[in-house]
Amino acid sequence: MIFNTNRSYYSAIKPKKMTDTTTTKSLEELVMEIPVEQIVQPTIPIKVAIREAGNLQRDATEDKEALIAKGLAPEKIEELAIRADFLSDKQTLWIRKYETSTNNTKEWEALEEEASKLQRELKHDFQFALRNNKEALRKLKNITKGNDSADLAQDMGDYAGFGLDYPEELGAINFDNNKLTRADELSHKLNNLVRVVDGAHRSKKHPEKQMRDRAYTYLKLLVDDIRAYGKYAFWDDEEMQKRYSSEYQRRKYQKNKEDENENI
Question: How far, CA to CA in Å, does 83 sit from each of 20, 49, 90, 93?
Fold first, then answer.
């Protein structure tokens, strides 16, 4: 997709002054207009994309006359910084969300490991203590039917309540009642985390992730467009051709070629 290059379009994306009474679109509104099918996933690190956009703005500014002569609107060069800053902001929001989800996932994994171990211990204790009580064993079997994350959280609560119903049988095997207290604690903690963790596992659907990808696409569209003009303007200059291409991608390509040669 090629964005409209007329001045009225590009003036719309500039920060609005406090005295401006005209209707303008925010950057968020502009990036939301990009069709879903044209949104691209980052192919290079975001920090690299932002740094290369800055380098491109510097180079294009130096070559402005040659680029304008080939039809490039000068506003596009100035706009690189605006789109790069927008991407930087959205990347920060996404990383903050991602790290929060990751930390919750790590906490869940630690609690899940403890709860799974306690679950096996309680099942073993109960089965032995209640070995002569068929009705109790039937109830115990119903508790252990599930096997997913929500079931584990529920099991901890069920085991805690179940154990309190049979104090004499458990006392006869010198059962440690602290296990029931801990099972109840784990049940509450796991239930509080399960929704957050399930959301982390669907991280691609997070609004912050989607907006970051849109911001990356928004910057990439402009970077690709300016680079195309640069390659056209300096089509017979090999060094200038490199100037208007991604250094990161060139190095990545070169490394892949070297790796291929080593495997011959």
Answer: 21, 11, 11, 16
